[in-house]
Specification:
- The complex is a heterodimer of chains A (about 90) and B (about 350).
- Helix content of chain A is about 20%, strand content about 25%.
- Chain A contains 2 helices and 5 strands; from the N terminus they run E-E-H-H-E-E-E.
- In chain B, the strands form 7 sheets. In chain B, strands 3-2-1-28 form a 4-stranded antiparallel beta sheet, with no helix packed on it. A 4-stranded antiparallel beta sheet of chain B has the order 4-5-6-7, with no helix packed on it. In chain B, strands 8-9-10-11 form a 4-stranded antiparallel beta sheet.
- Classes of the chains: A alpha+beta (about 90), B mainly beta (about 350).
């Protein structure tokens, strides 16, 4: 299970992080995680299901580009960080 | 007269309360978060947010801001043509006296959403989104067109008027089943001449109506100030002795001859002329105008009042306005004299008497 950390800006919504999520890609892990935390979904993904424009994801230390973030492969020991981008505040 | 205001700002939601010592401002929620509009309806406060990172959100409070509950914001259905992502909740309005549980949201992009359960669920008004004229709508100030004015007709439960930047003014007479573009007489100098009278590309910055005479409407257009006496079907451009660019307008609730506007120089210079800030008022349907400056800064002022940043209470005597510079003023005498409540609020998006 990948370990998923959320930005402190979302701590009110995810007070008990980090969370664990299964999946072979970032998108799968997020889908599984957000199914259990539906109130967080709209903060990470937009209403079309895309990663929000000003949210960025790091996987195992690598800052993922927005276009390809959800398809990035991850392993069972991966660490994901869901962060707010420095743009868009 | 109303002693309470809701003020939506770039950094939170404020209430402004009139006490014996004067008006005081209190931050009641969402510190640091942009609040794009707020409404108090039947004892509930609805607040529209636009998180810089996390998108548009909607919250409600049934105890005047002591506690908040997040509501699911409206979304464009996946099967809507060109279904976009919701960018911003721009307008937030009550359903009027015929529909006490109804709320309206005007969005950017220009989707109209209706709730008949006080915000618990939202229906997308597909009939408006599907009008063929939408292909000619375009953004004014934002990348996409948006709905900023929604006005239910107090005489007719099935009739609602809306205004779109830039998509003209529209009306339904069958509770949203179909829509007609209105706006004869409007003129858009910002498009090629042969399109200037196209009703569906007009940029009405804000449209309001007289509560007691609902056929009388006032419009701050991108190019000029207009009045309609037939609920938006035909418009007459009014001649002012001062600048007639701006965003905000309010109508007197009972006197169909009286309205207020807040001028700026012009579209590419959105600030008061010569740094001297004023409010314009007509008491005779737009034949003559007063520019009222008492109590407002007359040098080095760069304040601009956004579309929803000016309000008048039910008495028609008390006004309030909040600027992009974070200054908030009230008037007790129909705008003749203004008093500064706070010069240091965040940039103000909306001001509402409650």
């Amino acid at each position: 299970m990948a370990e998923v950390h959320f930005t402190s800006h979302l701590r009110k919504l995810v007070p008990d992080g980090p969370l664990s999520a299964s999946g072979a890609t970032v998108g799968e892990a997020l889908t599984n995680l957000l199914a259990m935390q539906p109130h967080v979904r709209g903060y990470v993904l937009d209403d079309r299901g895309a990663l929000r424009q000003h949210v960025c994801i790091f996987a195992d230390g690598e800052r993922l580009s927005r276009d390809s973030a959800l398809s990035r492969s991850i392993g069972p020991d991966s660490k994901l960080y869901i962060m707010q981008a420095l743009s868009g505040g | 007269m109303s002693d309470h205001l809701l003020v939506a700002t770039r950094k939170g939601l404020f209430t402004i309360e009139r006490k014996r010592s004067g008006w005081t401002a209190n931050l009641i929620g969402f510190a640091g978060i942009p609040v794009t509009n707020a409404l108090r309806d039947n004892g509930t406060i609805y607040t529209a947010l636009k998180h810089g990172h996390f998108g548009p959100k909607l919250h409600r409070s049934d105890d005047d801001g002591e506690s908040w509950r997040e509501l699911a914001p409206p979304t464009f259905p996946a099967d809507a043509a060109d279904a976009p992502s919701l960018f911003q909740i721009w307008s937030l309005d009550s359903g009027g006296r015929h529909h006490p549980d109804r709320l309206w949201i005007g969005a950017i992009p220009a989707g109209l959403f209706r709730s008949d359960d006080r915000g618990e669920s939202w229906q997308f008004v597909a009939s408006l989104w599907n009008v063929p004229e939408r292909a000619r709508w375009f953004g004014g100030g934002y990348d996409a067109a948006g709905i900023h004015s929604v006005s239910p007709d107090p005489r007719d439960a099935d009739r609602v008027f809306i205004a779109i930047s830039c998509g003209g003014v529209w009306e339904t007479r069958d509770d949203g089943a179909s829509w007609s573009v209105l706006g004869k007489g409007l003129f858009a100098p910002y498009v090629p001449p042969e399109q200037a009278e196209d009703s569906a590309i007009q940029d009405p910055h804000r449209v309001v109506r007289c509560a007691a005479a609902p056929d009388v409407m006032w419009m701050q257009h991108h190019a000029g100030i207009y009045r309609s006496a037939d609920a938006g079907a035909h418009w007459t451009r009014l001649s002012l002795p001062c600048d007639d660019f701006g965003f905000a307008v309010v109508a007197h609730p009972r006197d169909a001859q009286t309205a207020w506007f807040v001028p700026a120089i012009k579209d590419e210079i959105r600030m008061p002329r010569d740094g001297a800030f004023g409010v314009t008022r007509t008491n005779d349907g737009g034949k003559t105008w007063q520019v009222m400056r008492e109590g407002l800064p007359q040098r080095d002022a760069y304040d601009l009042i956004y579309r929803h940043g000016l309000d008048v209470d039910e008495s028609g005597e008390r006004l309030a306005m909040g600027s992009t510079t974070g200054a908030l003023w009230t008037s007790e005498n129909s705008g003749a004299r203004w008093q500064l409540v706070n010069a240091h609020l965040p940039p103000i998006y909306a001001v509402r008497f409650v």
